[in-house]
Design brief:
The protein has 399 residues and is of the alpha/beta class. The chain folds into two domains: 3-47 and 56-111 and 238-320 and 383-394, FAD/NAD(P)-binding domain, CATH 3.50.50.60; 118-234, FAD/NAD(P)-binding domain (3-Layer(bba) Sandwich). The protein has ten helices and 23 strands. The protein has helices at 12-24, 47-51, 61-64, 120-123, 130-141, 156-168, 188-201, 292-311, 352-371, 386-391; strands spanning 3-8, 30-36, 40-41, 59-60, 70-81, 86-91, 96-100, 103-106, 110-112, 148-152, 173-177, 204-206, 211-215, 218-221, 226-228, 231-234, 238-240, 257-258, 271-273, 278-279, 324-328, 334-339, 345-351. The strands form seven sheets. The chain has a seven-stranded mixed sheet. Strands 12-11-10-16 form a four-stranded parallel sheet, covered by helices on one side. Strands 13-14-15 form a three-stranded antiparallel sheet. Helix 7 links the parallel strand 11 and strand 12 (204-206). Helix 1 (12-24) packs parallel to helix 8 (292-311) and helix 1 (12-24) crosses helix 9. The longest helix has 20 residues, at 292-311. It is globular. The two termini are 23 Å apart. The model is unreliable at 391-399 (pLDDT under 50).
């Protein structure tokens, strides 16, 4: 009897887990199902490019995983019963169904977070999803010269969105509203380069500014300022998919699944969580931030741990750490901020055109790894232990 592995979500982390498991486990012993709401893989780290009119390469999940033993299914996840070992889905035709599992990998990721600010849900645009980026793309294309665009949020997503829009549409009045100082978590060199690029692109920066309301044509701030905005782009952080919170899994107050060092749920040993959906601890006992830089290592860790537990192999013991923060500042400029293992900026930073090329190579490398799930690392398909195939989650429960 095959051991059923169901992976929810085919972003960077979910698709990586499915592909890595296909390389690690013998096809006769496992049935790997990859459930995703869209039929294609979406490069989420490039949605700011999509929003300004650039076309991204389409990658069909069916084509990506053809011949690998992974079965992609286009369906929306509507619920998870971790006590019964089932997932409720609705397919593209609107038909409801239950998918059973012996091992579940939860990789539903995150979406934009309106922070409960009045008017954001009704009037602001987001780029945390393909659909959101396409909606913003249509709106930006309809703007006349001189109209104001305000990007709210001074994190990496906000920096990339503001510079991408300003470079693609120099005729617009682009501004960034940041709660803290511009690039406050960067080194002196990084902050200096950021200000240089923002100045060259003509982006107005409102530092130490908290937006407290959004209307169709303006944003208001905590100090009473009114900033005109024909378009408001909201990038103030991410919120995880709400499904996990509705289960009996142990989750944080924000809905992230609490996992151990192998990415396995601390409350349900047959469930693993990766990427933004997981609360995983990194160096210094600090939670890993929501990012691709965190997500891919958690996917590798989870896949290798699942394979080890099913085959009786050695559990992975590779500490997850950071090396740099990669920021695109339009197509011609970039910033690579080197960091400590626990993600604190150091003095060194790579800037300019070389940094833009570096960031592009990182993005292409991540997408290539997902799009070629059985290439790259050596393929070592091991047989699943008879007990594992029979009992599923019982295997390795005490490991």
């Amino acid at each position: 009897m095959q051991h059923r592995i169901t992976v929810l979500g085919a972003g960077y982390t979910g698709a990586t887990v499915a592909g890595r498991l296909a390389r690690r486990l013998h096809r006769d012993d496992v049935a790997i199902t990859l459930v995703n709401a869209e039929p294609d893989f979406v490069e989420r780290v490039r949605t700011h490019q999509l929003a300004v009119g650039q076309d991204l390469r389409s990658r069909s999940l069916g084509e990506m995983f053809a011949g690998t033993g992974v079965e992609p299914r286009t369906a929306e996840v509507t619920g998870v019963d971790v006590d019964r070992g089932t997932v409720a889905v609705v397919d593209a035709d609107g038909d409801a169904e239950e998918v059973g599992y012996d091992t579940l990998v939860y990789a539903l990721g995150s979406g934009w977070n309106d922070q409960g600010v009045p008017g954001v849900a009704e009037h602001a645009y987001e780029i945390a999803s393909r659909s959101g980026a396409l909606r913003l793309r249509e709106r930006l294309a309809g703007l006349d010269a001189g109209q104001p665009v305000v990007v709210v949020g001074g994190g990496l997503t906000g920096l990339e969105a503001a510079t991408e829009i300003a470079e693609a549409r120099p005729d617009l009045a682009v501004a960034l509203a940041a709660r803290d100082a511009l690039g406050d978590r960067l080194s002196d060199k990084g902050r200096g380069h950021l200000r240089k690029v923002f100045g060259k692109l003509g982006v107005t920066v409102y530092e130490h500014t908290t937006v407290t309301g959004v209307e169709a044509d303006r944003v208001t701030t905590a100090d009473g300022r009114v900033v005109p905005a024909a378009v408001t782009v909201w990038t103030t952080g991410f919120a995880v998919h709400p499904i996990a919170r509705a289960t009996t899994l142990e989750v944080t107050d924000t809905g992230r699944i609490v996992v151990d060092v192998t990415m396995r749920s601390v409350s349900h040993p047959d469930v693993y969580a990766v990427g933004d959906a997981a609360l995983a601890m990194g160096p210094g006992d600090k939670p890993l931030r929501m990012s691709c830089a965190s997500g891919l290592p958690t996917a590798w860790q989870a896949a290798d741990a699942i394979a080890a537990r099913l085959t009786g192999g050695k559990l992975p013991n590779v500490p997850i750490r950071y090396f740099n923060q990669c920021v695109s500042l339009g197509r011609k400029e970039g910033l690579i901020q080197y960091v400590t293992a626990d993600d604190r900026a150091v003095g060194a930073a790579l800037t300019g055109r070389l940094a833009a090329v570096y960031k592009e190579l990182v993005c292409k490398g991540a997408a290539w790894g997902v799009a070629h799930p059985t290439l790259g690392l050596p393929t070592r398909r091991r047989r699943v232990a008879r007990q594992a195939a029979r009992s599923g989650s019982a295997v390795g429960a005490s490991a």
